[in-house]
Amino acid sequence: MLLRSLDPRNADSADAVVVGDETLSRSDLVGAATAVAERVAGAERVAVSATPSVSTVLAVVGSLMAGVTVVPVPPDSGPAEREHIVRDSGAVAWLGAVDADPCGLPVVPVRVHARSWHTFAEPPASHTALVLYTSGTTGLPKGVLLSRGALAAGLDALAEAWQWTPEDLLVHGLPLFHVHGLVFGMLGALRVGSRVRHTIRPTPDAYAAAGGSLYFGVPTVWSRIARDAESARALASARLLVSGSAPLPVPVFEQLHALTGSAPVERYGMSETLLTVSTRADGERRPGWVGTPVRGVETRLRGEYGAPVPHDGESIGGLEVRGPMLFDGYLGRPDATAQAWTDDGWFRTGDVAAIEGGGFHRIVGRESTDLIKTGGFRVGAGEVESVLLAHPDVREVAVVGVPDDDLGQRIVAFVVGERTSASTLTDHVATVLSVHKRPREIRFVESLPRNAMGKVQKTLLS
Questions:
Q1: Residue 451 has pLDDT above 80, yes or no
Q2: Are 72 and 177 in contact (CB under 8 A)?
Q3: Could you identify which of 36, 231, 270, 366 might form a hypothetical disulfide with 204, taking C-beta atoms 3.0 to 4.6 angstroms apart as the criterion?
Q4: Dist CA 158 CA 168 (whole Å)
Q5: pLDDT(100) > 80
Q6: 432 falls within a domain
Q7: What CATH number has the domain bearing residue 428?
């Protein structure tokens, strides 16, 4: 059973799911979700308006109960993106809020107080559970096909790595249309059997007041908490503080450790792979590194022309992975699916990484935007960003490569912080890293463009 904690034979919990001010007991959740399942049973795919709400949880859980594939739709998506997701996915109905245009689909109401105790047969592990649309850097988003078996394997590997148990209370305020907030942050709790509290918005005050043992956040969230000492200290009783979706700056890692007494757990994954690498609850937590492969996962590095890259902690290469939690392809995109896999069955993540001899991974960034080829050298933007963030005048930074007639690409840093001199920052980099890794240009900006998960959108920097 994918969401095994919802077996009605299990003991009830008065606050199994809390979203903002709305609370569902486990029996409430089962009864209301089963009522949804009865309404959508027999459909192939349904679109769910993925607002941070109890109705979203019921729509997703009810559809999964009935063996119906769920297509989460970001509530803030523009008309063209929403239309694309609905039409490309082949969804036949719309569940949840109708503040946004349902694109002509019939609307199925999600009633929080409805109850049904009908039972449904568990679909096979190969059945597609979710179609998650990626935000790729070019073209329209692609639908990532995730099977029930992949979700189960991925969530069980996380539970083992993080020693996640039914006694935990998970707290997060992440979007419910993304793998981090929906799969790990909601379905994970419903598989493990822990309680989950969604704070609507991931603010320092909300996290501090939640009293959780396990917290999920993106680096932007943790950065804000680290700047709010009182809220950070309120998390000292938590068992794990987990950061993902983007690299956690080393200074933020260190500030959280100092204020909470707990070193953050960093991990790595993507929509296509779920979570494949993580530091462990009982293992080393090294700032700037995302840990070792979770159960069932293998990783390797490949160079520009497919040659193996040594696992020496310094050499960087394209990260490739394989394991039971990987996706089944891109919906209706056989060419894109084929291009994503090597001939010998490894998924090309598109990320650049270094792996040291003990298996610890450091993610440098996206090959398309974070691998800079300058003057014959290959430079990872992430390592330059980490050094700049260690300077007291730098609050945020994004490093990119821009075309250069002489160098091929020159390193440019977009900096949010005090207006110190550009030479001070470039000299700072050169004292820590090789001289060829110093930025050739510093551009001071008021803010960096980010998406809903807090990731910097480097393609918008120029």
A1: no
A2: yes
A3: 231
A4: 14
A5: no
A6: yes
A7: 3.30.300.30
> In this structure, is residue 400 part of a structural domain?
yes
Parent domain of 443: 371-460
The SS3 call for residue 388 is helix
What pLDDT is recorded for position 139?
Answer: 67
pLDDT in tens, 302-318: 998 889 999 999 898 99
Residue 53 vs residues 22, 36, 179: alpha-carbon distances, Å: 8, 15, 16
Residue 125 lies in a domain: no
What letter represents residue 368's amino acid? S
The rounded distance, in Å, linking the Cα atoms of 75 and 50 is 6
Task: Tell me the CA end-to-end span of the chain in Å, nearest whole number.
Answer: 49
Q: Rounded distance, CA 270 to CA 50, Å?
A: 19
Say how far apart CA 74 and CA 55 lie, in whole Å. 14
Is the confidence at residue 137, as pLDDT, over 60?
A: no
Q: How far apart are CA 40 and CA 111, in angstroms?
A: 13
Contact 215, 168 (CB under 8 A): no
- State which amino acid sits at residue 413: A
Token pair of 102 as six digits: 């349902």
Task: Pick the closest to residue 448 from 249, 259, 292, 198 (CA basis).
Answer: 249
Structure tokens at 53: 């709400």
Average pLDDT, integer, range 102-125: 94
Task: Give the ranges where 318-436 is alpha helix by DSSP (H).
Answer: 334-340, 381-389, 422-432
d(CA 59, CA 64): 9
Cα→Cα distances 461→77, 141, 339, 447, 455, Å: 21, 20, 27, 11, 13
Q: Is 437 among the domain residues?
A: yes
Number of domains within the chain: 1
